[in-house]
Design goal:
By secondary structure, the protein is α/β, with parallel strands linked by helices. The protein has a single domain, classed as Rossmann fold, CATH 3.40.50.300. It is 31% helix and 27% strand. The protein has 6 helices and 11 strands. The strands form 2 sheets. Strands 3, 6, 7, 8, 9, 10 and 11 form a 7-stranded mixed sheet that branches. The protein has a 4-stranded antiparallel sheet with strand order 2-1-4-5. 42% of the residues are buried.
């Protein structure tokens, strides 16, 4: 579970400050894909950055976990927030941001080693990499480098990379913006399926409501605030 609780975020603007996120409360449940939409500059990406602990809000809480294991990430030090991201939060950026020299398999292996704080055995990590590549439909492309993959395939690698540490929370920023409608639909369906199968709380920023059927709950952000009528259950 992830919950933004009355979060406000401001940035310097000359002698004043501009409010990017204005008293937002938003909850993402495990096994649910929550879409965040709204016009450009409305604060969608700022909400995602706060949820990812990449930016500390001016006020409010970022609650992650469940039961007695809930942590307010907004109160963590930078070091502890970094550790939380490695262990509990998967992030998929708008661009796939893959390393050009590495194969699809190596992209995941590097990420697995970076966050291997529990000293998981290499064989287990390799098994996890193989399982994730299969889950996103890329087993046959495991040895290809980014320039050998299509845009949709690169985004699939990025999704698998975001899941390598079995996160409770997955945060996704505009995953279909560089894809055509067909490939975009495939990526949205993949994210929805993995969210449900792996019981992840997923927050996804999107401007493209063509793919709204893949979203469980949709909220709209306007001028940094959730619209009064924004909460919509897409599926029963």
């Amino acid at each position: 579970m992830i919950q933004l609780q009355n979060v406000t975020l401001t940035f310097p603007d000359g002698e004043n400050r501009i409010t990017a996120v204005d008293r937002v409360t938003l909850r993402g449940e495990n096994g649910t894909l929550t879409g965040i939409t709204g016009p450009s500059g409305s604060g969608k990406s700022s909400i995602l950055a706060v949820a990812a602990t990449l930016i500390r809000p001016d006020s409010g809480g970022v609650l992650i976990g469940h039961g007695a294991n809930i942590i307010d990430a907004a109160q963590l030090s930078k070091k502890d927030a970094t550790q939380l991201r490695r262990e509990c939060i998967g992030i998929v950026f708008q661009q796939s941001n893959l390393l050009p020299a590495l194969t699809a398999r190596e992209q995941l292996q590097v990420m697995a080693r970076l966050g291997n704080t529990t000293r998981t055995r290499q064989a287990e990590l390799d098994g996890r990499v193989a399982e994730l590549l299969d889950a996103v439909g890329l087993t046959a492309h495991a040895n290809k480098r980014p320039h050998q993959l299509s845009g949709g395939q690169r985004q699939r690698v990025a999704i698998a990379r975001g899941l390598i540490h079995r996160p409770e929370v997955l945060l996704v920023d505009e995953p279909t913006s560089a894809l055509d409608q067909e490939r975009g639909a495939e990526i949205m369906q993949l994210i929805a399926r993995l969210t449900h199968e792996r019981d992840i709380a997923t927050l996804l920023v999107t401007h493209d409501l063509v793919h709204r059927d893949s979203i469980d709950t949709l909220v709209t952000v306007v001028d940094g605030r959730l619209s009064d009528s924004s909460l919509t259950q897409i599926q029963s």
